[in-house]
């Protein structure tokens, strides 16, 4: 009598299918985690910029114009940039008001209730604006 050593074709196909499904789920979860991380950085950057603008206003009784160059001394580290090189943060500044927005990858923004104009409304943008 001959001993069967090895696997049948059906067993191999089932194993390959299960491994493929698990790999697909892992890759999808990894991509979602990266996207959520980038969106969290965008929100944190907007809040940090808002705090810097408000500190500038307290010190100078006016908001910084142009937007990015005047508040460098009020930001810890370098001026924040979007985590994706192909995207950037959107800013509108004047001596009495400012609005800054970041385009989020998966919605969850707040610009539908914001007074910021020019960036498009909806839940795809996270915006901060002057508090004074």
* Shape summary: rod-shaped
Q: Tell me the span between the first and last alpha carbons.
A: 90 Å
Cα-based radius of gyration, to the nearest Å: 24 Å
Oligomer class? single chain
Low-confidence stretches: none
For the biggest sheet, the summary is:
3 strands, antiparallel
Percent of residues in beta strands: 5-15%
The secondary-structure class comes to alpha+beta
Helix content: 40-55%
Could you tell me the number of beta strands? 3
- The domain count comes to 1
Please state how the strands of the largest beta sheet are arranged side by side.
1-2-3
- Give the helix tally: 2
Pfam families: N_methyl
Keywords: Membrane, Methylation, Transmembrane, Transmembrane helix
GO cellular component, one term: type II protein secretion system complex
Transmembrane segments: 12-32
């Amino acid at each position: 009598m001959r001993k069967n050593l090895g696997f049948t074709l059906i067993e191999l196909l089932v194993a390959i299918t299960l491994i493929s499904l698990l790999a697909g789920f892992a890759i999808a979860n990894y991509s979602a985690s990266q996207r959520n991380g980038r969106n969290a950085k965008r929100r944190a950057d907007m809040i940090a910029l808002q705090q810097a603008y408000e500190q500038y206003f307290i010190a100078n009784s006016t908001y910084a114009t142009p937007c990015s160059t005047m508040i460098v001394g009020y930001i810890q580290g370098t001026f924040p940039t979007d985590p994706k090189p192909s995207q950037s943060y959107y800013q509108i500044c004047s001596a009495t008001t400012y609005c800054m927005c970041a385009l989020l990858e998966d919605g969850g923004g707040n610009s539908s209730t914001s007074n910021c104009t020019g960036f498009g409304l909806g839940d795809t943008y996270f915006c901060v604006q002057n508090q004074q």
